[in-house]
Amino acid sequence: MLAIFKTFKENRLLVYITTTVLSYVSILIVYYFQSRYVSGISFWSIALIAPSLLAIIFGAAIGTIINQYFENEKNRDLKQSLEEQKVLNQILIESKETHELLKFLEKVLEIITAAPITKTKPEAGILLKGQDGKYRIASCINFKSELLKCAIEGVECGECLCGLVAEKQEYIFAGSDDKRHTVQYEEMEDHGHYVLPIIQKKTTLGVLAFHTEIDHKFNKQELEFLKSVADILALVINTYLSEQKERESQLVISSARRIAGLASWQILLPSRQTYWSEEIYIMLGYKPGEVKLDVQSLSTMVHQDDREKLKEALAKAEVGYPFEFEVRMIAKNGRPVYVINKCTPHQGVDGKINKLSGTVFNITEIREKQEAIIKQEAFIESIASDAPYAMYLLDVENNKVLFTNREFNKNVDNEILMEFENKGIEVLERFYHPEDLVLYKDICQEVLKADKDYYHIIARQAYDGKNYMWINQRIKPFAKNERGEVTQLLFVSINLDKQKKAEEQTRELNQQLITQNTKLKKMNNELDRFIYSVSHDIRAPLASIIGLVHLYKTDNDSRVKDLYVEHIGTSIFKLEEFIHEVVDFTRNSKTQLTPVKIKILDYLKGLYSQLEYIDPTNKISFEVDSNGIEEIITDQDRLGIILRNILSNAIKYSSRSVDSFIRCEIEQVDSKNIIRIKDNGIGIEDSQLDKVFDMFHRASELSQGSGLGLYIAKETAERLGGKLKIWSKFREGTELTIELPIAVA
User: Fold this and answer.
1) Which of 402, 462, 497, 712 could disulfide-pair with 468, CB 3.0 to 4.6 Å?
2) pLDDT for residue 66 is more than 60
3) Average pLDDT, whole number, for the chain?
């Protein structure tokens, strides 16, 4: 309808033609009724008069309606423009009053979404470009920003609607089903968009996004208003970023000045008005503005010995003479601050000096270090000569020795000393023991980096190249060049020879004490267990014998009495076997070693023949392979203890389900006599193997002995300087290996 009204308003002829056509249509209708219901009026009279009259009437009516419509539209546009301007003015006022960018953006969104200008939803957001080039939400209203990718990860340029707007720098009006709307989340409702770029000098600073209802129609006036908002945002954001960059730049400059100890000043002439940078206050220990600094008051802050020199220099500068010299100023705490004060006079248009400008460079740290070095050198010089430690000062750059003290000189031949003074490093390296030289070189590399005040090394030195002594040497970086590189090293050596020997003796004694203590603890533990087990293992057979004797006396049955006698014999045998083991244990720990030549083949067969009676019912095959070895030299009694315990166990725990065998093999390997004894008996479970050599340990419920046998065998092997090892598999057999030295000491 608006388009039709605009067409009529712009073309009056069209209005006339339209009204004329309408008039003639009306005439035809009138003529139809006249011909049927009215007589006396001719058709031609109506046709001539009616069109003109009706055209005038219709034209006037339509023109009036159109003019009124456009007058109302004009008033609405004016009202809309006033509302828009009011909102834009409010945003501009806010930009002046709010100094934080994020708060300003938040206020802008509150203002726009509350204004009745646009028909959008009260949902809006502003995205700003980050240093990584991505756009992230800086402020939003009613956005579920925690669900939006642009709030967390950021949107790449060209990604989704916001990224496309940023890339092309053109607005987009779109619905949520638009294929370009690639960033979605599960709870997102259908909505439309106005998305506009925030541009300043052809650079996209950010994006302004508004949500609309899904059926919202594009409105050019809304778009123009939002463009105006985006333009204001671009101006404010750009101003803020520029100010932020300027502040950061000033902060960097100020920090650099403070770190470098640099300040600046100006004196305006002829008023002598003075300006100082903040760094001069900080340099002197004041807060900026805490004290008044002018030419007169400043002179009181200068050391009294330098005041006259500064006064004369300023007077000459006022007539055009620059100056640069060192001045001592007095800080708030009363300590001197050493500065280099440099002044440059400036001429005005009249050729006269109208300004003095200058810089003040803080060199206090340099001066304090120089004074410390001077004091240090004087101190070292005063004590070094008579110090009880060997000392020398080495010039690294020129490879020369600058100083040696009396303690060092008395240990070095004059010839070596003269060579040392001219070839410092080469001769110094000859002092060190070859095994310590690498350590010394590594320490020197660390020293030259000067990461610490001093370094130390414990090494062996021989000034004569023969008689090495232990020293504790401290190496100190003594001087540096302007590049911070170490140029001089001070060496201080303390003789540790006596201390080292005492430490060695102490260490040996401590080790002996530890060994003796370990042995003593072991003996005490074994003694406690030994006393308990001996009392138990002796008491049990005796109690059994006493009980059997009592039964023997009270029973008259001769067959039963024979059985009692047999049991008494068994108990006596166990008691005898235990006593024999105790004797073996005592003999091993008390008696001296007596090495003799033993015909090993005959010896093994003889031992086995003595033990066969242990289980006469089980026929066991006994084999010995001596590998051509006829004799070995060792303590025969102790070897007998070891072999007797191993062979008796092999007989006792032989298997009844297979043809039992015991095989012995003798070898000589790597200066050792090796005797292996293998059987196919009942074997030992894995859980018991690591305990079989413990005192009084019984590896099986079938064990008949005291649990001392293998313990005594192991102790005896170690007493001979050897070892006893075991391998066993349950229900398959056991192998014990005896390793003895070929010659017993």
Assistant:
1) 462
2) no
3) 76
